[in-house]
Amino acid sequence: MESKLEKRVGILKDEQEEILSNEDELLYGVEDSPDLITTSVLGFQNVITAFGGLVAVPLVIAGMAGFGVADTAYLVSAGLLVSGIVSIIQSKGIGPKGFRVGGGLPTIMGTDFAFVGPAASVIATGGIAAYFGGTMLASLLEIIMSYFIKPLMKYFPPVVTGSVISLMGMTLMSVAMDWAAGGVGAANYGSPLNIGIAVFVFLIIAVVNHYAGKKVAPLSVLIGAVVGYIVCIPLGMVDFQQVTDAAWFAFPQIFKYGISFKLEYALPFVTGYLVTVIETVGVMQTLGQVTKTELKDEDIAAGVRADGVGSFIGPILGSGPAATFSQNAGLIPMTKNASRKVAIAAGFIMILMSLFPKFATLVSIMPMPVLGGAGLLMFGNVAAAGIQSLSRVKFNNRNMIIVAASLAVGLGVSFRPEVTAGLPTFLSGLFSSGISAGTIVALLMNIILKEKEVVEQTA
């Protein structure tokens, strides 16, 4: 018979678990449809948190191609246009079963830095037309690979996926910290003012997210960013001259800079697409966890396929390859908003911003420390989601080694990327990203280290 004390302890335990469950409950699930204003505002919040990544690669590519102000602006607009289109496709999921494109989870798409390295050599050899032709041709590889994701998913048990999710958040911390310091190469990098602004935004987001009501808490990142932005104006940290110089309208053009289809231009990008496949699988699994969605292997394959299709579409309009961004995986657990309608709204906002460069520029001049304060919390949430996933894994000797090896190599490469420079080109590209390096190591260790059979000893 249970004693009264044991019963009371049991009741208290159940009540505590119910409270924790309610705290973790999403305000908007994947299928939910917030009202139009809420959807639009939350969608804009998604765009702001990803904006640095959305425009960074087009700016780098423009520099490699020796473009002037007008052509650079066009590349940024084209990047936003394609990101918007592919974000809608990825978030909605279109097409019949077996050929579906898009995982159907709230996702923001953009061009990944995995393609910047090979882009430098290709542009130097064949110009910007070679870059567009090479990435477009090589994107067919990712589309083909998406049909082989399902048999590969058996090599992604919880110990591997948890390690990858944790690693994804941890490796992005250095990016957020660079933003908080003022951005790589900034003359005032790490100044007390920059750090102070980042801390200020960080605290606003944390306090609003924790204490505000259900209607305001999901907007915590946007509120923090807007307040930080406004505070930076009298401090002379916002240059509105760039907004004045930007054009009012920008219309997309088909193959504006030409295109050159040659195998020699496509081969350098093969490694970038392999890295993208690995990272997209990780992002999709993270999104599945934070949106409380049970993903099927076909859903992850459709997500990878959206990357490939987006990368094929991009060069037609003047943008680079598309990749699934991880920012939303950190934003969702903070805002408790997992509605795909919000991500689709973000896609339409990006399309509108691409057509009206002044509006896009107004966002792009947001001081880096503001993004840094938001980024630290978001990427920290991704790492925390991975730790939460690993907490459900039995930490025997085998699993401990898998987690340790994945984090050690992934973080090691992230902290010291130059360590892979001396490897053969293919391996150097494959291990150039901390996320891909750690994922590959986790997969290999999972295959090499077999589960030990537990032999029961009978008396």
Automatic annotation (TrEMBL):
It comes from the Bacteria. One of its GO terms (molecular function) is xanthine transmembrane transporter activity. It is a multi-pass membrane protein. Its main location: membrane. It is found in: Cell membrane. It holds the Pfam family Xan_ur_permease. Coiled coil: none annotated. One of its GO terms (cellular component) is plasma membrane. InterPro entries: NCS2, UacT-like, Xan_ur_permease. The chain crosses the membrane at residues 47-67, 156-181, 193-212, 219-238, 265-287, 342-360, 366-387, 399-415, 427-449. Keywords: Cell membrane, Membrane, Transmembrane, Transmembrane helix, Transport. NCBIfam families: ncs2, NCS2_1, pbuX. Belongs to the nucleobase:cation symporter-2 (NCS2) (TC 2.A.40) family. This is Purine permease.
